[in-house]
Amino acid sequence: MIMPLAKDTGAPEPTTQGPRLGLRAASPFVLHRGVQRVDVDLGSRAYPILIAEGLLRQAGSLAAEKVPPGRVAVITSPPIAHHYLEGLLASLREAGFEPHPILMPDGEAAKSFSALEPALCAMAGAGLDRRSAVFALGGGAIGDAAGLLAALFMRGIPYVQIPTTLLAMVDSSVGGKTAINLPQGKNLVGAFHQPGLVIIDPATLATLDDRELRASVAEIIKYGVISDPALFDDIAGGCPQDWAPIIRRCCEIKARVVEQDEFERKDVRALLNFGHTIGHAVEASAGYGGWLHGEAVALGMVAAALLSRAHAGLSPSDESRILEAIARHRLPTHWPELDPAKVWEIMRRDKKFRAGRMRFVLADRIGHAFVSESPAESDVRDAIASLARKLR
Ligand SMILES: NC(=O)c1ccc[n+]([C@@H]2O[C@H](COP(=O)([O-])OP(=O)(O)OC[C@H]3O[C@@H](n4cnc5c(N)ncnc54)[C@H](O)[C@@H]3O)[C@@H](O)[C@H]2O)c1
Ligand SMILES: [Zn+2]
After folding, report:
1. Ligand 1 contact via 164 beta carbon (within 6 Å)
2. Does 66 qualify as catalytic in the annotation?
3. 349 has catalytic annotation
């Protein structure tokens, strides 16, 4: 496990956060049997992640322990609303809330200025105030947009994440990064704004598209490689019957990383980028309708494993195990149409390219990773080019 040194105590409060007006002090949640709890310990911004099948039905009573009753906004998009909005609204009403559903465009279209303004107007029009809260019901796109709405509305109100994709459950709903996109790039406008509570109901995965689900598994493989050999073994064996224990372990890893590096000022949070430096560039090079994020990350991890063998002492057998785990979930390990020159160009323009040296997350074994500057440009270009060939 990653357990470095001290927490990020010297960091100033983010400007959009403000004091947690309206949020009740930490309370000992009355939890039913079988509910797993992971705490994100960020001092005054601490919050619990609760995980259990069927938890959506209890969302109202759980939220009532953190958010005072009153008007709240429920941010979602039409496909998610179709499955889960009515149940959430009923649960919130039962617990004494007055929920106002606000539908945003689906997917990345939610993460734009043009989608934020009508949502903010709807919040103001519904009479929300500084004591109100936002509920984000959806995948990472809705979570990122709703989190930013909560950060912006009246200079910051609390919000509750209710992730409905596997990616959002294991990654984006935890950690307080909120963002929208610009034509110039993804996630270029945003705020650090931690949720007050994360409610994860793995039963919602039943309606998720199989390709979306498998793509998210790439992030779980990533957590295993950077921090948890047992988690790696579990996910390398295939999809579990019960997702809750796997989600809990991913949330624990993410929580420990965020506790140590909330504002991404050290190299700790950067460890989550294993497979992402090349993966992002592959994703961008494929353009719209190409790879899903997790699929591109799978390709990025293949390249990162190759670099790790050459520069971090990763054993050939661990490298093979990473590739096998990726292939097991029918994620790509190579891409014959890949344009290495284009991928390299996109990477060079990436914000993570600092002072002429690329910083890579490399693994020296499954379960341990670190940030390295040792791969030279030619090594990185070779690793990218190798993705076009079926090597093994
Ligand atoms: N904030 C962070 O730390 C962080 C981390 C990783 C990714 N992200 C962001 O997350 C976004 C991607 O999130 P995503 O992969 O969840 O995609 P997404 O939010 O776009 O959702 C994918 C699709 O699944 C549908 N969907 C969601 N839940 C469903 C369900 N239970 N049943 C049926 N359909 C459902 C959605 O309507 C959408 O069409 C990106 O914008 C990325 O930048 C943020
Ligand atoms: Zn990712």
Report:
1. yes
2. no
3. no
Q: In sequence order, which residues have a C-beta less than 8 Å from that of residue 314 and are 6 or more positions away?
A: 305, 308, 362, 363, 364, 365
Domain assignment of residue 156, yes or no: yes
What is the DSSP-derived secondary structure letter of residue 9?
A: T
Kindly give the distance from the C-alpha atom of residue 139 to the centroid of ligand 1, in angstroms, as a whole number: 3
Ligand 1, atom nearest to 292 Cα: 15
With the most atoms of ligand 1 within 8 angstroms of its CB, the residue from 165, 207, 219 to mutate is 165
- For residue 379, is it within any domain? yes
Q: Cβ-count burial of 246 within 10 angstroms (0-12 exposed, 13-18 middle, 19+ buried)?
A: buried
pLDDT, tens digit, 9 for 90 and up, residues 109-144: 999 999 999 999 999 999 999 999 999 999 999 999
Low-confidence residues of the chain: pLDDT under 70 = 1-32, 351-356, 391-392
Query: CA torsion, points 297, 107, 80, 209, in degrees to nearest 10?
Result: -40
Given 208, 223, 249, which residue is the final one in a domain? Answer: 208
Same domain for 156 and 271?
Answer: no
**201 and 235 in one domain?**
no
Dump pLDDT digits (tens) for 279-336.
999 999 998 779 999 999 999 999 999 999 999 999 999 999 999 999 999 999 999 9
117 is annotated as an active-site residue:
no
For residue 214, the CA-to-ligand 2 centroid distance in Å is 13
Structural domain boundaries enclosing 295 = 213-386
Query: Against a cut of 0.85, is the pTM above it?
Result: yes
CA–CA separation, 159 vs 16, rounded Å? 13
Q: Is 175 in the pocket of ligand 1 (CB under 6 A)?
A: yes
